[in-house]
Amino acid sequence: MTAEPAPLVPADDPGALKRAYSCFPSGVVGVCRRTGSGVDVGMAASSFATISLDPPLVSVAVRQESATWPTLRDADELGVSVFAAHQGDLARQLAGHPDHRFDGVRPLALDSGALFIPGATAHLVCTVAGELPAGDHTVVLLQIQSLRSDPTAEPLVFHASTFRALEARRALDDA
């Protein structure tokens, strides 16, 4: 016998909405640049998504109130680092106070200003392709110009308001 599902609640209940959103796992990225004056600027985003192969597009969602995004948006190129499973503390740090986001980190910088977190599973050099207002966030479309990746490295996954590890499962054909 299966239990009856919980009753549906209105979407204007912020707690219920956050709980529902937390059911969907997502990758975690750092979006970073080095300014012309040599200042490293970055932020963490757990709302990263792949969008298109042609043209190569990804997206991140940025809070409307973000004080960091205005400093990033005008960069010639941005560095997007897809965090590896062991980089949870770095992701938290990059989401923390702006004055301490790069404490103890030796980022990898390109001449264009794109900045990367070392040890990430992927590094994407991106330009801003567009911004779409979306409620209390802005969806930022980023066009990938160049990249490197290591698909054998485990990614950092954000699910149910915490970082988690992935589990590899055997394909049904192997059973």
Automatic annotation (TrEMBL):
Name the record gives this protein: Flavin reductase family protein
Entry keyword set: Oxidoreductase
Enzyme class: oxidoreductase
Gene3D superfamilies in the cross-refs: Electron Transport, Fmn-binding Protein, Chain A (2.30.110.10)
Source species taxonomy: Bacteria, Bacillati, Actinomycetota, Actinomycetes, Mycobacteriales
UniProt similarity note: Belongs to the non-flavoprotein flavin reductase family.
Example GO molecular function: oxidoreductase activity
Key word Oxidoreductase present: yes
Pfam family, one: Flavin_Reduct
Residue span(s) of domain Flavin reductase like: 21-165
EC annotation from Swiss-Prot or TrEMBL: 1.5.1.-
